UniProtKB/TrEMBL annotation:
SUPFAM superfamilies assigned: Protein kinase-like (PK-like)
Protein name, UniProt field: Phosphotransferase family protein
Pfam families in UniProt: APH
Source organism, top-level taxon: Bacteria
The species this protein was found in: Actinoplanes subglobosus
Residues in Aminoglycoside phosphotransferase domain copies: 109-184
Length: 192
């Protein structure tokens, strides 16, 4: 199995048919459990996620998803279509009931399913249509403020792809809303 190029926190490898993600660092068992639960419950939803095969100790084994990593598409000048797809897919994520995906009781009305590390850095896209083929790395999923993932996606662009900042309107237009700057910053400060 070869190590995948965009796995920064964990040891993530693929043989072309399967992907094995081994959790590392503090709270690894809890993060692995959160991601296993999210992938299991999102398997038949409108949000595309990798198919979970099994969960050996300290790891997840998933089917490989054919697609191009969002950061690779941005690097070749396709930030606009990638951000549009990010906005559309985030709306789909937020339409799901967090209690259904994560368990527990439903929260207040404005609480949604939050990915926790949402952006092109954790998404795979069709290389031709630029539609989302998978949202990956659900280990930080939780119920929370709908602006968290939107603000985090924006932060990823501002910090890691400054050449694409002028394409951020694509994200907000596709999402259907651009909360004011103070609200986006407040949501990021509360990121868990």
């Amino acid at each position: 199995m070869r190590q995948l190029p965009h796995g920064y926190t964990h040891d993530t490898r693929s043989d072309g048919a399967t992907v094995v993600k081994r959790y590392q660092g503090p709270s690894a068992p809890g993060r692995g459990s959160t991601e296993r639960l999210a992938l299991s419950r999102l398997a038949n939803s409108v949000v595309p996620v990798p198919h979970l095969i099994d969960a050996p100790a300290g790891a997840l084994r998933m089917r490989h998803v054919a697609g191009v990593h969002g950061q690779d598409l941005i690097a070749i000048g396709l930030a606009g279509p990638v951000l549009r797809s990010c906005g559309q897919t985030l709306r789909q994520v937020q339409m799901l009931e967090p209690a259904t995906v994560l368990g527990g009781m439903p929260g207040p009305a404005r609480v949604v399913l939050v990915h926790g590390d949402y952006g092109p850095n954790n998404m795979l896209f069709d290389p031709i249509t630029h539609t989302t083929v998978a949202v990956i790395d659900w280990e930080w999923a939780h119920a929370g403020d709908p602006v968290k993932d939107l603000g985090w996606c924006e932060w990823i662009i501002r910090m890691h792809h400054p050449e694409a900042v002028d394409q951020l309107p694509e994200l907000f237009d596709a999402y259907g809303e651009r909360p004011d700057w103070a609200r986006r910053q407040d949501a990021l400060r509360g990121r868990s």
